[in-house]
Amino acid sequence: MSGSEDQMETSFRVTRLQLAVAGGLSLALVALFVATMPFARLPTHDTEILVPAYAAATFVLEAMTAALLFALYSARRQLPLLFLASGYLFGALMLAPWALTFPGVFTGFDMDAGLQVTAAFGLLRRLAFPLFVLAYALAPRREIATNAALVAVSVCLGATVLIEATLFFRDWLPPLMRDGRQVNLLWQVVPALAMMLYAVDIVLLLWFRRSALSLWVCIVLFSLSIELLLISYLGGGTRLSVGWWAGRLYGLVAMSIILLVLIAQTTLVHVRLARTVAAELRSREKRLTAMEALSASIAHEINQPLASMVTNADAALRWLSKAEPRIDKAELALRRIVEDGHRANGVVAGIRTMFTKGTRERAELDLAAIVAQAASEAARDARHFGVEIAVEGEREVPPVIGNAVQLHHVLRNLIENAVDAVRTAPLRARRVTVRLTQEPHGDVHVCVADTGAGIAAEVAERLFDPFVTTKPGGMGMGLMFCRAVVEAHGGSIWVSANTPHGAIFHFSLPVAILSVADAQTRPSVEEKAR
């Protein structure tokens, strides 16, 4: 899979919390299923009136889920989402004719469409959804330009044609029902086929699509499987029995799962957006406050090499104007002028890097690749000082939203600071370790650890303030820039002690939002760094 396709993936990796919630929900469904088993074949009386309420509730859940999935597709343009959204929309459209033709429900409207029509609509609903999920599981992860509204209209037209065809050929429908409540033996083919499709879908989703959305789709299919067991097997296929109604409740739960997940993720996105905006406002205020001191500092930093250049130029002229010119002394003074010129250029280049316009553009990024690139570049200079840079991390981390230039500069700054700390420390293991992990609550965590002399506690508290530095001749702006960038990305940065020697600089960034581009196994960070 190419790097651009990797960046299109916006799904969360399946976290332990999600697995725990999914496992707990599955156990609860199984427990309720076991509790219902002894009563599944008991008949109920006069419960037909509840069928419209059930159909309306299910229609609302499926229609809202389809709308959210189509909206997510419009933002991400990923083909699997289109199939999943279409499956929910088709199921919702089949509910109305199923309820309207249900025996004994709308008797006052003279809507008797025949004994087999309701079962035929149930068959279409039962088999269509796992087929759409199968397409979702097998669809390639690629961006497409298909209009979501056009697909939704096409699904509506297709459902309308099927409804009209079912009603038109109602006299030729297979004998699925014996009477208004009892099924024929032929109906047993439907739940068996549906259960087989559910099983195939679950296996494919777990095998090919390791994402949060796919996990919850598996729970949906598991709930629908329990629904089928209650309705068609334990309930004997008898309509309006206790098992039949219990199965319908499982269907309601199944249809609400993805909706709740999408609502939760949408809320989380808004919270993260608000946090990012607030962080950017705080960062802007801090930058404005720092600019006053920065302007004076820039003048001071540039004035120093300029003054030194003038002094050395005067010295060179004096050595050359002597009766016996001292070429060696003049050459030394000129070399110092060159060094001071490079120093002044470094100050200007650093400021330009911090405030250049291109660093404000945002995109979906593979942070592991940025870490590997920054470490590889820094390793070339570190080898001259006998310093080893090791990159460690998980095999998979989700993408983040940010600016590659800014984050690369942050990583280079932290890694180079760590290298400086190690090479000036007493003789011990000269090693800098960069580690990339995902935190339990979803953020991506990067830490840069060194084996240097460490940082005093009183200095660590204000290390990210402007003009605070522990390096001789340092400007004290690098770590302030790192904090401004990380906080502008909605993250946080801090420093801690490294046991037994050195310091560890940490920063964390929020990951991108949920999508269906399920993460396959990616190369580890170590492999990318090689």
What does this structure look like?
The chain starts with a helix and ends with a helix. The radius of gyration is 33 Å and the shape is elongated. It folds into two domains: 3-273; 360-530, Heat Shock Protein 90 (2-Layer Sandwich). It has helices spanning 3-8, 16-36, 50-76, 79-100, 117-138, 148-168, 189-208, 212-234, 242-321, 327-355, 367-382, 404-423, 457-460, 478-488, 525-529; strands at residues 363-365, 388-393, 400-402, 431-438, 444-450, 492-497, 503-509. The longest helix has 80 residues, at 242-321. Mean pLDDT is 82; it is low at 1-11 and 514-530. It has a five-stranded mixed beta sheet with strand order 2-4-5-7-6. A two-stranded antiparallel ribbon has the order 1-3. The chain is an alpha+beta fold and 530 residues long.
Largest sheet: 5 strands, mixed
Give the total of domains: 2
**Looking at the chains present, what oligomeric state does this protein adopt?**
single chain
Query: What is the helix/strand order?
Result: HHHHHHHHHHEHEEHEEHHEEH
How many helices? The count is 15
Tell me the overall shape.
Answer: elongated
The chain-level structural class is alpha+beta
Strand content: 5-15%
Helix content: 55-70%
What is the terminal separation in angstroms?
19 Å
How many DSSP E strands? 7
Flag low-confidence runs: 1-11, 514-530
What's the mean pLDDT score?
82
Radius of gyration: 33 Å
Q: If strands are numbered along the chain, what order do they take across the biggest sheet? A: 2-4-5-7-6
GO molecular function, one term: ATP binding
Pfam families: HATPase_c, HisKA, MASE4
Enzyme class: transferase
InterPro entries: HATPase_C_sf, HATPase_dom, His_kinase_dom, HisK_dim/P_dom, HisK_dim/P_sf, MASE4, Sig_transdc_His_kin-like_C
